[in-house]
Amino acid sequence: MSRSIRRDLFWSTTFLALIVLAVMGIFTVISFYSMGINNAYQYLEQKNKSVANLIRGYFAKFYVAVDTLSQLRIVRLAPYLEDSDRNMALELYKAVEEADEDINYLYSGYENGMLLINNYVPPEGYDPRIRPWYIEAVKAKPNPSGGVPYQEVKTHEWLVSISKVLLDDDGNITGVIAIDTSIERLLNAVLGEDDRYRTSYSYVVKEDQTLIIHPDSKYLNKKLPDLIGPVDFNAHSGRFSCTFNGNDKFAHYTNIDELDRCNGRQQG
Question: Is 15 strand, coil or helix?
Fold first, then answer.
């Protein structure tokens, strides 16, 4: 075999070997990338389900409390009763508040403008009937509201409120009872920073896809489709991908049916 042929065969063989190595490298990269994406999805799914369970536990006690208190005569009919009855209601509120450190405020507002609350002096001209927690409870009648984020009128801190209408013996609305918890406290207790994926975070939307809990308060009360486009949350849980602020995101969601159809999302 001549030197020229051997040289041509060498370069041909080398070229083919490089092609094989390149193809193998591409498949290896694709394989590792797919494996990484799948592992990330699995991690988000596990984290999302864990967060959903924590949220269930965090809010379920508030739903039980407002539902139970809304049945009591001293709460339902407070504006029409004696001062001694209203003081009894306030003592009851105080006992519930002291039993649960996650409660910022427990109170009731009424159709006559009265506010029944411990250790709080509302600003001049305060009208409970126009506050978000009152309006949402009336809309949700006879069920509790599904969580209402709003800024406290004096401190301006962000709170999420669980509220329910109060009815007289004839079924007429007399007022609304509500429990507030701090969104910052909730984020620290339930939706804390993720050590594995630093860009991962959790948020909660209502059935109408209104954001009610989010690490960035500027997104509260916004519609999720307005931020990332339409998403189908009909299944109990599932995956989806989206683009947010120019970045590609993938996420896992879990429907929390027990909490008036609030839905927890874990996004990375």
Answer: helix
- DSSP per position, 62-123: HHHHHHHHTT-HHHHTGGGS-HHHHHHHHHHHHHHHHH-TT-SEEEEEETTS-EEESS--PP
Token code pair at residue 83: 């001062």
Q: Which tens digits make up the pLDDT trace of 128-181?
A: 999 999 999 999 999 998 788 899 988 889 999 999 999 999 999 999 999 999
Q: How far apart are CA 128 and CA 104, in angstroms?
A: 17
Q: How many CB atoms lie within 10 A of CB 85?
A: 15
Q: Is 199 exposed, middle or buried (0-12, 13-18, 19+ CB in 10 A)?
A: exposed
Look at the block and give the residue holding tokens 């998403």. 231
Residue with tokens 């849980």: 237
H-type alpha helices, 116-232: 132-140, 183-189, 224-228
195 phi and psi, to 5 degrees?
-75, -25
Tell me the CA distances in angstroms from 21 to 18, 27, 130, 179, 230, one per residue in order.
5, 10, 70, 64, 42
Question: What tens digit of pLDDT does each residue of 208-249 get?
Answer: 888 888 888 888 888 888 888 888 877 778 777 778 877 777
- Alpha helices (H) in the chain, listed in sequence order: 3-69, 73-76, 83-99, 132-140, 183-189, 224-228
Q: Which residue has the tokens 């683009």?
A: 243
pTM of the entire structure? 0.74
Distance between CA atoms of 200 and 8, rounded to whole angstroms? 54
Please, which residues bridge with residue 240 across strands?
251
